[in-house]
Design brief:
Blueprint lengths: L4 H10 L6 E2 H11 L1 H10 L10 H14 L1 H7 L3 E5 L4 E4 L4 H9 L21 H12 L1 E5 L21 E6 L6 H10 L4 E12 L4 H12 L4 E10 L1 H14 L2 E4 L9 E4 L9 H10 L1 H16 L12
Parallel strand pairs: 6-7, 7-8
Antiparallel strand pairs: 1-3, 2-3, 2-7, 4-5, 5-6, 8-9
Helix pairs in contact: 2-4, 9-10, 11-12
Amino acid sequence: MSLNLVHTVTEFLKSSPDNKFTARQIAEWIYQTYPDECRKKQEQSRAIVIPLNTEAALLQQLVAEISSQSQRLQKKYPQVKTTEGRPRRYYFTSKTDQAEIDALEAGSTDLNLLQELPTTKNEQSLYPKLAEYLFTELGVYSKRIDEKKSSNNRGPGGNKWLYPDLVGMEDLSREWHSEIRECVKQYADRKTKLWSFEVKLLVNRSNVREVFFQAVSNSSWANLGYLVAAEIEGRETIKELLMLTSLHGIGVIRLNADNPAESEILIPAKERSDVDWNTANRLVKENRDFINYIELVRQFYQTGNLKNRDWDYAE
């Protein structure tokens, strides 16, 4: 019997619903579970450049075929879903997109929805992971903005979607010669980029537009604004994000909470040359954390010095 990958992969995922597996993990299971079929596949192979005469070569071929069949797999079995980013993971679920979001936001682990993020139970636990990634990989100093520290003078809902989760400052002058720094100072030219981030546990087809426009609302004041997600589900979600970014400029970061260094910018933000100081002024008037952030930016322009202890993560 020859291997029917679409059927075999689906049956494997169905046997362990809501658990996520890489193509490599699925291929290893197939190799162990169907040794005769795998041996027959090797014997029938006519590959010359990379012959399937070793276990490693066959596993790599299975991984490639699983990846190439993913769209066909999801079209035939809509309950099979994938996460985006590196590495892509496959899983079978009977939950709707909205139900997955509700379960994550409620901190549910009954069906191991948080397998990919075993140490993460809520959105707040992602903030220090993002701060680490921003500093170590992008050189961005960041600060948490707690909306609970806001005045809320405008009544219930008056500040909805106003505050980002984190804000950041990138020092453009850190590798400049001292003469260049002084010259830029005299010209009163820019030596920072200000960043803004909206953080989510999961982005899928159910909430993609809502969370994106939340990021547009609270992060468009900065030079660079990003929607950050620990998990992004499905190619259609990525397509929607690409379209929205082309229109509104907010970028997308996929955050690896287990290993922040493995996080990646999936869609770069469109940089704005100027900060929207009117919107920043609104944030300053309403939130003490944002006041502190702007004070740090001002002090940097005045002194040229950065104190690591003032920021959420800095070595």
